[in-house]
Amino acid sequence: MSTKKTLPVSGMSCAACAVNVEKALNASQGVNSASVNFANHTAHVDYDKSTSLEKLRQSVKDAGYDLVIPEKNGENAEDVYEKVRKLQEKSYQSLKGKSIGAILLTLPVIVLSMFIPEQSWTNYVLFAITTPVVLWFGRSFYIHAARQAARFHANMDTLVAVSTGIAYGYSVINTFFPEIIEGTGLEAHVYYEAAAVIISFILLGKLLESRATSKASDAIKGLIALQPDEVVLVDGDSEVIVAVEDVMAGDLLRVKPGGRIAVDGFVEEGESYVEESMLTGEPVPVLKVKGDRVVAGTINQKGTLTYRASEVGSETVLARIVQRVRDAQGSKAPVQRLVDKVAGIFVPVVLILALATFLVWNFSGVDQAITMGMIAAITVLVIACPCALGLATPTAIMAGVGAGARHGILIRDADALERGHRITDVVLDKTGTVTTGKMEVREVLRTSEQMNWSILEAIESLSEHPLADAIVGYVRNQELPSAEKPVIESFEAIIGHGAVATHEGKHYKVGKPSWIISEGVQWNDEAEAWTVIQGENARSVVAFAVDQELLGLFAIADPVKPEAAEAVQRMIRKGITVHLLTGDHISTATAVAREVGIDHVKAEVEPDEKYEYVEALQHSGKHVAMVGDGINDAQALALADVSIAMGSGTDIAMDTARITLMKNDLNGVPDALKLSRHTVNTIRQNLFWAFIYNLIGIPIAAGVLYPYNEFLLSPMIASAAMGLSSVSVVTNSLRLRTVFSSKVKEDGM
């Protein structure tokens, strides 16, 4: 039996690092598969019992990084992530200090180098100012590069360390031993400004990148913030405030007005309305009484509730949502596998190109060829940016998954998010997906002034038939004058027909019209015509009679969701073919399809037939999304290219589906497809920019334009471009956070 875990990784500085960690994990004994996400610094590992987290951590350490695992003192996954969050914040503050310090010292270096005529003392001053920039503020580049070199690896730190090391070392030699260079016939120039500016710009770029990347995780931070840190534990007659992590299943807890429910549980005492919009998207609070379920993160309104914990820690609905979002943000889209291969060889290729650049310049015959070649080689090392390449896909996935989570769309993995943009056909289950799944009285025909609502409610309250529940709900919503509840003297359910009851000597019947007629109840033309019309609209008709007199008729149906027609039309306008697939009768299915505008309908199907229907569409070349909410949809959901479960559905449906709509709103389907399309477009834009940047930037840095206009790119400008390339990719990905805002309009979806 295998175990799957998503764990933080520390020490990574670029996409090549992620590739190295992934290789180390996949090479470890007992690991079935491992993938590492550079954008959120996590590793998703599937391993068996022949290994352990400690062994996996050692494998990562051997590669020069660290895998953060729970300590043996009872830390859970959330504790680990909180620890890492604090470390990342500390790292950010350290990076911020280094950036500010480096920039403050680099400014006088630039002034001295560019605006002060070179004198005997200037080189010594430049050395004194530049040295702390390179060897103190930039020391991490050299330390990490050395560690990687010791393992025959290379990453972005290698490029920075080699380029700035050459510029700084060459300048130091020309400051203290100028005769060495001058002895070769060359001028002893110094390039302190290049080393200082490169370090400063790259530190600044990493600072901006760190802050921008952290924003992609705002969705998780927001979800975690929903759970309170402390909760009131009821211990006999006293109340004790304890930490949420100390709560155990079975504990009795209390929440005051305005407080958040700490863990999942069931109400033991009290009544109150609870605001569950974080779970359902519905702003209207829900009344909770004894026996009702409450969920962690929801907000208690005016009353005090005492509830017994049923699920705690990682078992709560909120914790599972957080973990699902975290797993999705850490997963890889198919295109990322190609990018990882490129990133894995990127740095060695750049080192070779830099060496080739230096050699070509040496044989070019131009004046100061060695110096020019060194500058060009340094610029090639600096401008090359594996980070932009490595961040292109994962930051878009993180931002897309986060945007979905905030909008009530929980995406299980990047593969589902990437596949969504190719969907050509959407297959909808009917009950609970297109319809509400709750029978309601849609229309009433009163045929007698003797209609007695209280007796009708009393009779139907004794019935277990779902249509009876609809009638009881309807009567209770009529706000009728309060009256003493009638006593039903006898009640008998007639299976397949209805029910008979006696009250004060009168015989009442509730049931099918055909049965009511067969019992001798008077039936007129109005009742017949009305019943026929309701049947054409796929509504079930229930008749209510006393003795031989018909009192009224009720048309009952599972109503179509208010947003269903709009959602269907949004998909159709985007060229998507929508299908309705149901086990219900053809008349009901046809009526529902007609109401929402679906042309392709298949009714009275078994679960196996749903599977076969999806399979047939796929064999015809279609890319299919299946949307359902029940156990009978599980097979078809598992087969579909993209599977979507409604939030009100069964655990089996939601466990099978790759996307879950927490709001139980059918508009979530076109919204999910829209999110997929925007995310894929963003990935394409990011990859295009990252590849074009390197394809154009590296040749220009090497001096390809020099023979035509004597233009040679400055290492300082190259370092700024390198930092901005990563920031631009992350910033472009963050635009996905507004994909559902009012400012982002798109025809049809």
Number of strands: 26
Largest sheet: 7 strands, mixed
Instruction: Give the helix level as a range of percent.
Output: 40-55%
Oligomeric nature of the chains: single chain
Percentage of residues in DSSP E strands: 15-25%
Spatial strand sequence of the major β-sheet: 14-26-25-24-15-22-23
Are there runs of 5+ residues with pLDDT below 50, and where? none
Estimated structural class: alpha+beta
Distance from N terminus to C terminus (CA atoms, Å) equals 43 Å
Name of the CATH homologous superfamily of the domain at 409-432 and 562-673: HAD superfamily/HAD-like
CATH class label of the domain at 409-432 and 562-673:
Alpha Beta
Any idea of the CATH topology of the domain at 409-432 and 562-673? Rossmann fold
Structure annotation, total helices = 28
Topology (SSEs and partners):
Elements: E1 3-10, H1 15-26, E2 31-37, E3 42-47, H2 53-62, E4 66-67, H3 77-115, H4 122-137, H5 139-150, H6 156-176, H7 178-182, H8 192-215, H9 218-224, E5 230-235, E6 238-243, E7 252-255, E8 264-269, E9 272-275, H10 277-280, E10 286-288, E11 293-294, E12 299-300, E13 305-311, H11 317-330, H12 334-362, H13 369-383, H14 386-406, E14 409-411, H15 414-419, E15 425-429, H16 430-434, E16 440-446, H17 453-461, H18 466-476, E17 490-494, E18 498-503, E19 506-511, H19 513-518, H20 525-536, E20 540-546, E21 549-557, H21 564-573, E22 577-581, H22 586-596, E23 600-602, H23 607-619, E24 624-628, H24 634-639, E25 642-646, H25 651-656, E26 659-661, H26 668-702, H27 706-709, H28 715-734
Parallel strand pairs: 15-22, 15-24, 22-23, 24-25, 25-26
Antiparallel strand pairs: 1-3, 1-4, 2-3, 5-6, 5-7, 7-13, 8-11, 8-13, 9-10, 9-12, 14-26, 16-21, 17-18, 18-19, 19-20, 20-21
